[in-house]
Amino acid sequence: xxxxxxxxxxxxxxxxxxxxxxxxxxxxxxxxxxxxxxxxxxxxxxxxxxxxxxxxxxxxxxxxxxxxxxxxxxxxxxxxxxxxxxxxxxxxxxxxxxxxxxxxxxxxxxxxxxxxxxxxxxxxxxxxxxxxxxxxxxxxxxxxxxxxxxxxxxxxxxxxxxxxxxxxxxxxxxxxxxxxxxxxxxxxxxxxxxxxxxxxxxxxxxxxxxxxxxxxxxxxxxxxxxxxxxxxxxxxxxxxxxxxxxxxxxxxxxxxxxxxxxxxxxxxxxxxxxxxxxxxxxxxxxxxxxxxxxxxxxxxxxxxxxxxxxxxxxxxxxxxxxxxxxxxxxxxxxxxxxxxxxxxxxxxxxxxxxxxxxxxxxxxxxxxxxxxxxxxxxxxxxxxxxxxxxxxxxxxxxxxxxxxxxxxxxxxxxxxxxxxxxxxxxxxxxxxxxxxxxxxxxxxxxxxxxxxxxxxxxxxxxxxxxxxxxxxxxxxxxxxxxxxxxxxxxxxxxxxxxxxxxxxxxxxxxxxxxxxxxxxxxxxxxxxxxxxxxxxxxxxxxxxxxxxxxxxxxxxxxxxxxxxxxxxxxxxxxxxxxxxxxxxxx
Length: 586
Description:
This protein has 586 residues and is α/β, with parallel strands linked by helices. The protein contains 22 helices and ten strands.
């Protein structure tokens, strides 16, 4: 009957919920205690009515009636107080747990490497932090109520049997039937509930993607296709939800029917026993009240059991995410970069692949400190990936990457990334001010440092002309700025950190030629104090560099001066012949 409680998913979810209770033990205990007090007050209420009937009304004792009526008022106020206390502290636990889960999810997601985020859609993660967390909150919110009602069910069962064994036996026959129905429903609903959650996550992913690319959708007149994709995702949720509804439609009416049948039997049999004076009138009135009270915990218990599948599914989906082990972590024995280091970079037999696709095969090269080096290669050769490996955004499969003679695997991640700054080709800006976007991760950056970095990136002039200058909010993803302006802000963000190593991943691709030339001139002075990797195939930018590393087929094909390599290597020369002449490339 209770197979659902024996599943590994249920056991994992229970441990997850227990951990949530431990962190909010005080409030949870207050809530449970209030619920238990409420149980005893509920049971006491019909007993006082029985005493009023048998000892007061039937006996004509007005003093007893007055005393017992006064006690009913006290019991009523106490019940109200216990309900309010249980709800306040129970809900505070649930909201606190929900907030903790969302904080833990976001904190954990930040620890996971790029490989994880490449694999798992953003919408899927958003669903676990939103709808799944809310479902878990519901479980914590109803836990005190469900616990109290299970206790109330037990107390009422004993009370009913003590009043009348025949009547009590008739009533208690309904309890196993209702619980069996609830457990059967729970078992069947587990799989459907998981499918509903998955469909909701898919829909969130689709909406996030379509809204994120709304400019592309509108520019290419793809609104109908985008709408159709969302419609399909919503239709999938609808279909799974209807499956769940059909299951509930089969079971839920029985939860109402069985108690009603039992109530009818109680009225018939109880009336007969009262008429024949087998039980007193007060006992009969109290018994019927207890039966009506019994219906409530039966429904709550059944509802609680029916909610278990959704809560177990949500808990397991969150656990699946939180149990994802970060593949890139700080070493146990931490080393530091030498203070006198110049930013030398050395790759030794580095192998790396995305999934089953090999990117680098025994990649080896050395870049001297404070040199400016262009990383050149055809599309898909791994140029950008090479830049991501230096700050350990991806972890290599084998080999070694060293900075100033120290293996990056021996460095604390925060120290490594403080010394390596990267300007991505996609200049993502947050919906913050221009100042906050430049100084991200640097709480102590001065206004002068921010503005100097912006000046080097040729961003200071246009930022100063914004409505509130550096305090202007640039809009979601920086869409309040042009593509070139976003790239210049992103470049300033990389420069302001004054890193030992600066990596520019085609960071000026959206900038016009004249502005690019100005930026290159400004960068010449800045780059003298750091090692700079410029990932590009643009000849003017390459000519700015001290040397070139040409990547082909996962390894270094050539390393040296641009003009020397282009004369010697045909495949390198071919990169620059499309749309230009050899003389231009030379």
